[in-house]
């Protein structure tokens, strides 16, 4: 725990550091709660440098909450393509509709109303309300958890001390400059109090930091013992018909990657060959018979809780009309039309391989 008597100096020193060292980020140029909300959601699981071009393109494409609310979901997912965690985009779309119907298009200003919107938890609500309206609402994103866990030498992994960390964040926030304070502590975590090798000799909080003053910065925050993440092997089919078109399917709206388009396939069962898996999955999911042909590409991808390897084969449609048995929709498309659909990141490499093999 850091001493309560140190709080005024912690605020003052952090704000002074921020005045000199704070990052110049596009969403700090605005007080528009809509734009700030978009940035906060994009930043939930994505690095700042990746977010910047997406944020700028998004505001050109959907400049207001009204424009977003009436947009087609496929266009929203397309604008999000490559950012991952697509439920964020679907929630933005739904929340925009809610803001228009329930709040007359005005972004709500109470924490309760903001947290009632899809995809907005307490820290995102705090980030938006402090940045847009200068409200003294605490935040607790990954950077802030790490900084506070070190500052107060938290004796538990952060995930097991969330209430304590919220209490520290609330105690520290500067009631007169909450906007700058929250931005500053996020910057401190991103640029000085980094996960590995924090730069304590340039930190405005080293004078009160329990981790620094007990040489514990390498050990804190404490980590949970981690178990290895599962690795799934997936057979994937790029199915051609005799008109030179490829079959793609749209995932159901709920769940991982919901609403995105993909090449059909599924998990390889124990003892099953890739070819047998592909034939079985396509019969079960789309109700058609195919001939499995050459291997096109294998793609590795890591999600938060598991890894996948996609084993992709070219296939030929033999018989049957494709049906959307396990998905929302199926379509035959020209290879050149693939870029019009929103695909998960792992599928982008497959598209590149298809287009390359067509050129050769
Ligand atoms: S002194 Fe070091 S460990 Fe402590 S808050 Fe600053 S950068 Fe983080």
UniProtKB/TrEMBL annotation:
Keywords: 4Fe-4S, DNA damage, DNA repair, Glycosidase, Hydrolase, Iron, Iron-sulfur, Magnesium, Metal-binding
SUPFAM superfamilies recorded: DNA-glycosylase (SSF48150), Nudix (SSF55811)
Molecular function (Gene Ontology), one example: 8-oxo-7,8-dihydroguanine DNA N-glycosylase activity
EC numbers: 3.2.2.31
Domain Nudix hydrolase: from-to ranges: 221-357
Binding site residues for Mg(2+): 265, 285
InterPro entries: A/G_AdeGlyc_MutY, DNA_glycosylase, Endonuclease-III-like_CS2, Endonuclease3_FeS-loop_motif, HhH-GPD_domain, HhH_base_excis_C, MIG/MutY, Mutator_MutT
PROSITE patterns according to UniProt: ENDONUCLEASE_III_2, NUDIX, NUDIX_BOX
CDD domains: ENDO3c (cd00056), NUDIX_MutT_NudA_like (cd03425)
Cofactor: Mg(2+); [4Fe-4S] cluster
GO biological process: base-excision repair; mismatch repair
Binding site residues for 8-oxo-dGTP: 251, 262-265, 347
Class in the EC hierarchy, top level: hydrolase
Catalytic activity field: Hydrolyzes free adenine bases from 7,8-dihydro-8-oxoguanine:adenine mismatched double-stranded DNA, leaving an apurinic site
Function comment: Adenine glycosylase active on G-A mispairs. MutY also corrects error-prone DNA synthesis past GO lesions which are due to the oxidatively damaged form of guanine: 7,8-dihydro-8-oxoguanine (8-oxo-dGTP).
PANTHER family the record matches: ADENINE DNA GLYCOSYLASE
Family the entry assigns: Belongs to the Nth/MutY family.
Protein name: Adenine DNA glycosylase
Origin species: Synechococcus elongatus (strain ATCC 33912 / PCC 7942 / FACHB-805) (Anacystis nidulans R2)
């Amino acid at each position: 725990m850091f001493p309560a008597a140190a709080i005024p100096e912690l605020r003052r020193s952090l704000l002074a550091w921020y005045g000199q060292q704070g990052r110049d980020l596009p969403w700090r140029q605005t007080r528009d709660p809509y734009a700030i909300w978009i940035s906060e959601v994009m930043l939930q699981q994505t690095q700042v440098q990746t977010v910047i071009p997406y944020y700028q393109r998004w505001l050109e494409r959907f400049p207001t909450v009204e424009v977003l609310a009436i947009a087609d979901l496929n266009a929203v997912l397309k604008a999000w393509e490559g950012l991952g965690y697509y439920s964020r985009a679907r929630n933005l779309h739904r929340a925009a509709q809610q803001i228009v119907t329930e709040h007359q298009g005005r972004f709500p200003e109470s924490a309760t109303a903001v947290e009632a919107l899809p995809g907005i938890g307490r820290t995102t609500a705090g980030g938006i309300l402090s940045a847009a309206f200068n409200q003294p609402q605490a935040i607790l994103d990954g950077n802030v958890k790490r900084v506070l866990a070190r500052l107060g030498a938290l004796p538990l992994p952060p995930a097991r001390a969330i209430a304590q960390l919220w209490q520290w964040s609330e105690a520290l926030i500067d009631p007169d400059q909450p906007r700058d304070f929250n931005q500053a502590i996020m910057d401190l975590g991103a640029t000085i109090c980094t996960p590995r090798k924090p730069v304590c000799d340039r930190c405005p909080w080293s004078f009160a930091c329990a981790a620094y003053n007990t040489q514990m910065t390498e050990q804190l925050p404490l980590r949970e013992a981690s178990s290895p993440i599962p690795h799934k092997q997936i057979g994937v089919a790029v199915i051609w018909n005799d008109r030179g078109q490829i079959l793609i399917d749209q995932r159901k709206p709920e769940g991982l990657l919901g609403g995105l388009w993909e090449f059909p396939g599924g998990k390889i069962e124990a003892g099953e060959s890739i070819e047998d898996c592909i034939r079985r999955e396509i019969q079960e999911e789309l109700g058609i018979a195919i001939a499995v042909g050459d291997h096109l590409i294998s793609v590795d991808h890591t999600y938060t809780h598991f890894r996948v390897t996609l084993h992709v084969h070219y296939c030929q449609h033999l018989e049957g009309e494709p049906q959307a048995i396990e998905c929302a929709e199926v379509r035959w498309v020209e290879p050149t039309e693939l870029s019009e659909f929103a695909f998960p990141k792992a599928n982008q490499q497959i598209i590149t391989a298809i287009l390359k093999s067509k050129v050769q």
